[in-house]
Amino acid sequence: MTAPSANPATGFGPHTPSAPALALLLDVDGPVASPVTRDVKPEIIADLVALANAGIPVIFNTGRSDAFIREQVMAPMIAAGMPGGTLIHAICEKGAVWFSYTAAGPGPIHVDHELAVPAAYGDDIRRMVAEDYASHMFFDETKRAMVSVEQHIEVPNSEYLAEQKLFDAEALELMERHGFGVVRLEHHAPNSDDEIDYRVDPTIISTDIESVRLGKDLGASRAVELLAAQGITPQAWRTVGDSRTDYAMADWLHHNDHAVKHVDVRPADGVPAKPYNVLTAADLGLPETVIHDDAGAAFLAGWRQALLG
Ligand SMILES: [Mg+2]
């Protein structure tokens, strides 16, 4: 089997359209990777490879590190037989870090260092986790701009969530001791200049501590830029996520006049009213119990069927 060569104008395969019918902008934890096992089902990998190879831009927009994407998404996609001309973009750490990969592996890693949490604060969090929270969570050493502390897989989620509240309270206090303004959910604690610099963002399996300038909207803007640099303007976007914060992808695209529908694979928090369509597994005729990567897999399979037959 010979891999098709990349079209020099687009970097994609020789048949990649400059205006593909769809582009996919995917949160990873939840819709792609299981929040339980943290890995990706083989059928999801196969559908991602097939869609990307057909010229549908597949772009990840995640809070995860580039190392996580390389291990859990890139390596299995390459192992599944990604053709030579296929280029995948991964926007990591909510827009602070990004890279692209082909069957030959990852290209250079880009880091916006202005968006990084100060190292001294990260060191204090690392020490706090080691001393007081190591039985429930671990410090993610692969992050380059964010500070993330994640639930151990073997700890029951309910026990983790209880411990996470204590951790988050200490992380907030530590921010204030470092003189930074900080926000967590409804709690706002500006610094002495009345500014908010950082956010403590609890997810169902981790706490992310990050610049308030990071977010899924920043990731969406980077996604559009990365495609534009290749001469690609998708006719429409599908954004997929499992958290309220993931709607920021579709919010940004809609606000910037891109056609978009958002897929919520964990609509239990309620589906907010939006000026664009929001889809859930129920729109595929599936029961409400189909969530997370089961719902993600169903949507990917549906797009593969609709676009590739
Ligand atoms: Mg998620």
From TrEMBL:
InterPro entries documented for this protein: HAD-like_sf, HAD_sf
Source species of the chain: Arthrobacter globiformis (strain ATCC 8010 / DSM 20124 / JCM 1332 / NBRC 12137 / NCIMB 8907 / NRRL B-2979 / 168)
Protein name: Hydrolase
SUPFAM superfamilies found in the cross-reference section: HAD-like
